[in-house]
Specification:
Blueprint lengths: L1 H29 L24 H26 L1 H4 L3 H16 L8 H13 L10 H7 L1 H4 L2 H4 L15 H11 L5 H26 L4 H8 L2 H9 L4 H17 L3 H12 L9 H8 L5 H23 L10 H6 L7 H8 L1 H28 L6 H19 L20 H16 L2 H6 L8 H23 L1
Helix pairs in contact: 1-2, 1-4, 2-11, 2-21, 4-10, 4-12, 5-9, 9-10, 10-11, 10-12, 10-13, 12-21, 13-14, 14-15, 14-16, 15-16, 18-19, 19-20, 21-23
Length: 475
């Protein structure tokens, strides 16, 4: 009886901590404020003070860290004791739904990207502009009605001068979701959040399917703090990328079908280009029993299919090759990566250095793929995903100049096939990615050239690794 009571209490504490994250949003609404007035100011109680380090900021930062540490510790415990804490699937599903709904109602606290999605989607749905060629600023400059439109005004000053930087599937989704809001900003936020809630539940289901109905891995994804905060609260489009990647993996390893797997992976790439890194692994795994020549031939043929799907997606918006400019635009921004520290001192050198790192990464990636192609060993799915995971981490830290916390969501679709020690490290990364945002709470660090985030992140990762090593030595 005591053990049952403790299990229930732990789940209750987890839910209560999640509710604590929702308190600032509740206070904001109760004060009669509207979405148009909402600022993502990195202030836990939506009551920003100036850039001076005040006692209020210290209290808010302590509260934020305390809540997240509590959520993270219990999350790790849930994974470790999943069968004890959740003796049946009904109890787990109930917890997943309750927590998801809580984060659904939390207003975007540390990101303004959702209003960029809403604005670009509305500019296409209502005003008929091509978001790859016309920014919201340009639209508002030439259209009197647009200058008074709250759907666009909320975006103004954030990314309003920026054309779409994502692949073509995302602006198409934004067009549909913004259209369904009928020009109401609050309804638009709700529609986007409901869309991400659907994706979250769908992704949880696919994790359940591709991991042989694993309760542990279902928890690992569904209750992951980064997914909850950045996916449901801040409403990032990583949720849709993860959806397509998980669906691709589902078709490949569960249904043993390569065509829909490649199509789904191309769709993921048509949102964020990093997903292309998985494509060679899919083909090489599917044809792992074939000789080298057949692997090369099949790889070439499926590459044509992959490119054809991407071309079809881009054809909806493409007028010329400027449509691909968004890929390069992101690499010209510096924030939260080690490149940012260089850019503060020498911007031009940082650009050159980042390009050199990209070329270096491409060489490393090609060599790793060649090893899989010419190797005589028949690699397992687990081995391939472990190789891919290493390359993905290298991609994140070695090539991304504009590194945001939600990018660490990219590692979750393939985390299930990593070694135990690596799984723990990756789980820690997803939690630390959020905790490291304390630099914004405390110092209002500038988005451009933000460098302290990477220092805090590196320190906390190193601290986690040292603790794990100490535990391993004791055992």
């Amino acid at each position: 009886m005591e053990r049952i009571r403790n299990k229930v209490n732990l789940k209750v504490i987890f839910v209560l901590l999640c509710i604590c994250m929702a308190i600032p949003s509740g206070m904001y609404v109760l004060k009669g404020n509207t979405i148009i007035d909402l600022t993502s100011n990195f202030s836990f109680f939506m009551n920003p003070s100036n850039q001076i380090l005040t006692s209020q900021k210290i209290i808010e930062t302590t509260l934020f860290m305390g809540v997240w540490l509590g959520i993270t510790i219990i999350y790790f415990y849930f994974i470790k004791r999943c069968d004890t804490i959740f003796p049946n699937w009904k109890s787990l599903i109930r917890c997943i739904l309750i927590v998801a709904i809580i984060f659904l109602i939390i207003l975007p606290m540390t990101s303004t990207d959702i209003f960029y999605y809403i604005g670009t989607g509305w500019s296409e749905a209502h005003y008929g502009v091509n978001p790859y060629y016309t920014s919201v600023n340009e639209l508002m400059a030439n259209n009197e009605q647009a200058r008074q439109d709250t759907m666009l005004l909320k975006m103004q000053g954030i990314w309003s001068g920026q054309t779409v930087v994502y692949g073509p599937i995302w602006p198409l989704v934004c067009k549909v979701l913004s259209y369904l809001s009928f020009g109401n900003l609050s309804l638009a936020l709700f529609v986007y959040k409901m869309f991400n809630l659907f994706l979250h539940l769908a992704n949880t289901y696919f994790v359940y399917k591709i991991t042989n109905q694993s309760k542990k891995y279902s928890i690992l994804y569904a209750l992951n703090p980064l997914i909850l905060f950045e996916g449901l609260s801040n409403v990032h489009n990583e949720m849709l990328v993860v959806f397509f990647v998980l669906l691709a993996i589902y078709f490949l390893i569960t249904k043993k079908k390569i065509l829909p797997a490649i199509i789904m992976l191309a769709c993921a790439t048509a949102i964020k280009y990093f997903a292309i890194l998985l494509a060679p692994f899919f083909v090489l795994y599917y044809y792992r029993k074939e000789n080298m020549l057949r692997k090369i031939v099949y790889g070439f043929l499926w590459a044509l299919v992959f490119v054809a799907v991407l071309a079809m997606c881009y054809s909806m918006y493409m007028q010329d090759f400027y449509v691909l400019r968004g890929i390069l635009t992101q690499q010209e921004k510096f924030a939260n990566s080690f490149f940012a520290s260089i850019a503060v001192q020498k911007f031009d050198f940082a650009i050159t250095f980042s390009k050199g790192c990209m070329l270096g990464y491409m060489l490393i990636y090609i060599l790793e793929i060649l090893k899989l192609v010419i190797g005589k060993k028949e690699y397992t799915w687990e081995e391939m995903m472990q190789t891919y995971n290493g390359l993905l981490l290298l991609f994140i830290f070695m090539t991304i100049t504009n590194l945001q916390s939600w990018y660490f969501i990219w590692i979750l679709p393939t985390i299930f096939w990593q070694r135990d020690s690596m799984q723990k490290l990756l789980q820690a990364m997803t939690a630390i990615a959020i905790v490291s945002t304390i630099v914004y709470f405390l110092f209002n660090e500038s988005y451009i050239f933000g460098q302290y985030y990477s220092y805090v992140f590196a320190f906390l990762i190193l601290l986690f690794m040292l603790i794990q090593k100490k535990k391993a030595l004791k055992e």
